[in-house]
Amino acid sequence: MTTRDDGFAVFRRLLPDVLPDGAGVSALRDGGIADELGVLSLDNVFGTLWTRPGLDPRSRSLVTLGILIALRATDELRFHFPIALRNGLTRDEIAEVIYHASGYAGFPAAATARTVAVETLDGDA
C-alpha cells in the first residue's frame, strides 16, 4: 500500500460523508486553481501524519483542535469537530479544549471556535 492509499483510507474513516461511495482520489480534484491540494493532503496529512504510531487518533484530534483554534481555521474546524467525536472525544472534552485554548490562543479565537462548534455539532448529542 502507498502513502496515498493509506491517506485515502484514513480520510474515508475520518470523513465518511465527504465523498460518495466508490469515489476515488480523483474526486478530490475539481479542475480549478491548485486542485491538487486535496490530493497532497492525502499524502502529507492523512497518509503520513495521521498514520504515525506515536499518538492515537483521539490524541491527534486533541492536538489538531488546539492548533486549528489557535489559527482560527474555521473551515477546517467544521470538519475536525465531528472527526474528534468520531475519534472518541466527548462534547464536554471539546468544550474543555476551547476553554483551554482561550488562555493560550486568546478569547477571540476561542469564541470563534465555540461558534463553529455550536454550528457544527448541534444535534450530535
What would your notes on this structure say?
The chain has six helices and no strands. It has helices at 3-14, 37-49, 57-71, 74-86, 91-105, 107-121. The longest helix is centred in the middle third of the chain and has 15 residues, at 57-71. It is globular. The relative contact order is 0.12.
List keywords for this structure.
single chain; 125 residues; mainly alpha; AhpD-like; 2 domains; 6 helices; 0% strand; 4CMD/NDH-1_regulator; 4-carboxymuconolactone decarboxylase; lyase
Describe the secondary-structure layout.
Blueprint: H1 3-14, H2 37-49, H3 57-71, H4 74-86, H5 91-105, H6 107-121
Helix pairs in contact: 1-2, 3-4, 3-5, 4-6, 5-6
What's the quick description here?
By secondary structure, the chain is mainly alpha-helical.
